[in-house]
Each structure stands twice: as C-alpha cells, then as structure tokens.
Amino acid sequence: ALRVGRCRRVFGRCPWTPRVPAAHSPRRAPCRGHRLTPADDELYQRTRVMVLEPESPNIMFIEGYSTRGFTISGDLVVGPCAVLPRSILQWNVGSHRDISHESLSLFRLLEPQIEILVLGTGDRVERLHPAMLKQMRECGIAVEVQDTANACATFNFLMNERRVVAAGLIPPGVSCTSPGGKYM
C-alpha cells in the first residue's frame, strides 16, 4: 500500500490502480458526449461528391489592372475594355464622359442577354446620365457603376457565381486620351 501511495504522488495515478470513476460505475450508464460507438453505423456512412460540370476553362477572370490596362485570364488588354462572358473587346471610350447610349449598345446586343453590367469608371465612382441607366433597365439589364478596382472584384465574384455578367472597364489613374476623347 505504501508503494501505490508513493506512485500516486509521483505520477498522479498509476495505470494499474483499480480506480473506477463515478460516471462509469455499474449503476449509471457512461456519458459518451461527442464520441460514437461502432454500433452507430448510420452516422458513419460515406459521403460521395460527383462533379457534374468541370470548371469551364473559358470563364473570364480579371487578374489585375494598372493605369495602362488589365490582365484578364492571362491576356494583357491595353486601355478600356468590354469583358463579355466569353470574350474581351476593346471599348472605345476615353473616360466616363464618353459612356453613352451608343457605347452601351454593345451590351444590349449580346445573346444570351446579360443580367448585370458592371461599369468601372476609373479611380472614382462617376455618375452616369439617368436616362442611360433607365434604358438599360428597360432592356432587362441591371447596371452597377463602381470605381474600377471594385468593379473588377464585383465582376469576378459574379462570374464565380455563374451569373451572366459583362463589364465595361476604364483603367484607373492617368487619363490617356487624345484630343478627340478616345483612348490612345
């Protein structure tokens, strides 16, 4: 008895000491908590994931931007651009002042029709004429006007959600326009 008591002082509790905690006494069922027994096999069934549609390689993703242009899905695009669901086009505007009914007509002609048009107006959020926004809404296209940095992030987010979205982006920073107002 002296050795067991000494062992308890040194090691806390010896593994060979016959000590039964109150929770595991024969009168009470043990409290399992979060542990499951092998008899609970319905909780151990495997889960299977099937990928029905692999990631589409032709989804546009804006990887970066600068004062010169954009990096979109690995391609460098210089100047303002229209990013469509499966292609990139040069957009012939020099600043937010050049955005007009004519420059937005490209987005109204797309098939399938886009749900949301994200416009990036450069360093700051610039207001567009309400008649242009109304015309786009009448065509069933929601327009989101943001600064270019946030427009790029919004476009990527919506594309990741598999929405039918397009973007009209003007690079932030120094305005590089010719006297005619078009991007050089």
What do you see in this structure?
The chain has 184 residues and is of the alpha/beta class. The protein folds into 2 domains: 2-44, no CATH class; 62-170, MTH938-like (Hypothetical Protein Mth938, Chain: A). 22% of the residues lie in helices and 19% in strands. It contains 4 helices and 8 strands, in the order αβββββαβαβαβ. It has helices spanning 2-11, 101-108, 130-138, 148-160, and strands at 62-65, 69-72, 75-78, 81-83, 88-90, 116-121, 142-146, 165-170. A 5-stranded mixed beta sheet has the order 5-4-8-6-7, with helices on both faces. The protein has a 3-stranded antiparallel beta sheet with strand order 1-2-3, with helices on one face. Strand 4 and strand 5 (88-90) form a beta hairpin. The longest helix has 13 residues, at 148-160.
Number of helices: 4
Main pleated-sheet profile: 5 strands, mixed
Shape: globular
**CATH architecture classification of the largest domain:** 3-Layer(aba) Sandwich
Structure summary, number of beta strands = 8
What value does the Rg take, in angstroms? 32 Å
Share of β-strand residues? 15-25%
Defining key terms:
184 residues, 2 domains, Hypothetical Protein Mth938, Chain: A, five-stranded mixed sheet, disordered C terminus, alpha/beta, 4 helices
Task: Write a compact overview of the structure shown.
This protein has 184 residues and is of the alpha/beta class. The protein has two domains: 2-44, no CATH class; 62-170, MTH938-like (Hypothetical Protein Mth938, Chain: A). It is 22% helix and 19% strand.
